[in-house]
């Protein structure tokens, strides 16, 4: 709607410009050498500099648009504002309008002062009979006697330029039209080609201009016309000849100098052929080619420019979502409303809101929000139920980043929540949804893929409620899921693609066959062929892997080998879990992970990898004896074949060890090794030298300083591509969490990912709060901008967009996921108000915001109102949680003693019911306590 209003306003403004010149369309009656006055003593310039009512309306319109541009410049910042060329055009156009009206006003002031002099000192009724001072007499002259620097002349020239720029501003809306859009887009896309053409054009133009000037500069006054006799005349003649406005006689001399005249004819002819026939036609061909290319993709570009124009004018906040958060999901679906097809465009953002837009076919009305729907988490995927919207055609299935699943009926009037599945098993976020009848009951089942590798199949009962039928865990996050018949006719399958590119199939075909005792298991020929084919393919792949490994080793050991750092991508997610008030860090790599180093609030930790140890060998030695200590024997090898035999035995023993370690009966033991270390101060360079020596090869060394609040290294098992960590933070302590990810690739390389821990890290955005709670208030006032106070809020609280909103005043609501307290944030330019029922939240905000303001040397006036009732209220919120955790810890401590009594006595009849209940629920209590071992410590600090 804002886009339509803006376009309408600008069209009215253009109408005012046309109406202001309407009286001059048929010509003017006052010639430049004639003056017209209303009464004998009136000065002519007073009449010509007066503002009409249309000019006053134009001035008001210009001031309003300039205010809008200044506001946009303030909100977006100079850099973002200048990057959009239309903003530069708007600001320049409005500045020229203001300069024109300013010059016009100065001319009016000067004419008014002259009129005041005449009214005060001239007694005669006719000014033509009076001799006036020159500075007063000037304002009675007709236009033909005005000075070139007269303010009114400058005003009229600037006004004309501004009018041209104003009408060229229509080009911003032209791409939305299917007729004019391709032409303008084509011109815009050929700017580079036009620039290249202009370089060639200027080179040719300068060459002929200077050459013709040098040829005819000696014949000033000796030519039929003044063409080419000066640089200015040479420029004018050649420029207008492009359009056929120069004469052939421009090269003719009055004297009989045929040699010069013939050279002039030849050069002038070559210039016209080069410019008109070659260069201009080449430019036309370039533009025509570009236009045809644009016409082929016209519809897609039209839609793109329509949406771009709307978004630019509405300051839509869709782009404010951070790429670190879950991306928004969208889809469109046609419904019938009031006799016309209306496309419902549904968009889900990272704040847990699903927005429904309405768009009519052939008419962009996407700026009208039909309604918003709050869902239990940030929606990551939206899909039509059963692929077609269900029985009503309006059912929408959504999945959230915290693993919840739901169904909403999207109508043209209001949304209807039908069902919702909570994530009771704490599984991963939902990335993809599909519908397919995999069970075979005639009703399409719902296939769900999660980012923890879980694939789920939901069927629907008689009440259309989803029921989990099957689930399968994969080792990587699922990026796409689809149902169909792929491998064998008659057996439905689920095809799944994962993050690293694997495609996995889950089939309904039986893969196990059973036989009774004494019965022979018969395998048909088809199965035997399949088994033999798989075996041959596996052997072929193993052979290729060994061959490629040998080639790589040979190339890496070559003297000409070049080492390059391999690149790899990391799929990471750092989100706050509302259920247990902890952060979940998920790291996924397309290759196996070797180790991950987690470090927070310190820069003194690093990981050193030693991939290979090379011993230098003198190149002058022809025969080399190698001594190797094997067990207690010293073996001497004088030939390379014996050494290769030993290497083969070592590799064979290593394979045997790996096979035995993977056996179910294998017992794992931590190997012991000794370290020869030395930490000494070097006097020469005043530094400490740390020497570490081990009897076996060193894999990595972790150097740690006491400045780190968190430092941990995770060694991953073989073929691990996904790692999920749970991290608990303490509000008031903030910093940066860094994850150093090292994959199992050669040469060794590492990537660093950074995640910001906010001061109020356990707070989560919500849409409603309880305003009846006792609240403490923190008020900040000072000379700070809206962008600065917004950056402070972004620094303190999660889930706040980094880009400042377009509104002048913003309100955000937050809820503490650990204590269930709440926070209300209201801020604008020069003022910030924060309300919370937890006084600790107010204290943290005061300290952090004071530090941030001090860094920017901004003086803050801080005032706060403490509500004593809020302390009791917060303790009431904490008391049930604390009591439950204390009771849980007490029950867990009693379990071992009660089990011992049960073994000693043989039964539990002698125990009171409370203790018997503890024994019956022992496994559940221990499991719950194990999930949150430090929950009690977090509650009492």
UniProtKB/TrEMBL annotation:
GO terms for biological process: cilium assembly; intracellular protein localization. Residues 566-600, 706-755 form the BBS7 GAE domain. InterPro entries: BBS7_GAE_dom, BBS7_hairpin, BBS7_pf_dom, Beta-prop_BBS7, Ion_trans_dom, WD40/YVTN_repeat-like_dom_sf, WD40_repeat_dom_sf. Residues 28-296 form the Ion transport domain. Residues 763-865 form the BBS7 platform domain. Residues 366-508 form the BBS7 beta-propeller domain. The chain crosses the membrane at residues 6-22, 51-68, 88-107, 197-217, 237-253, 265-287. Residues 868-941 form the BBS7 helical hairpin domain. GO terms for molecular function: monoatomic ion channel activity. Its main location: membrane. GO terms for cellular component: axoneme; BBSome; ciliary basal body; membrane; neuron projection. Keywords: Membrane, Receptor, Transmembrane, Transmembrane helix. It holds the Pfam family Beta-prop_BBS7. It comes from the Eukaryota. It is found in: Membrane. PANTHER family: BARDET-BIEDL SYNDROME 7 PROTEIN. This is Short transient receptor potential channel 3. It comes from Tupaia chinensis (Chinese tree shrew).
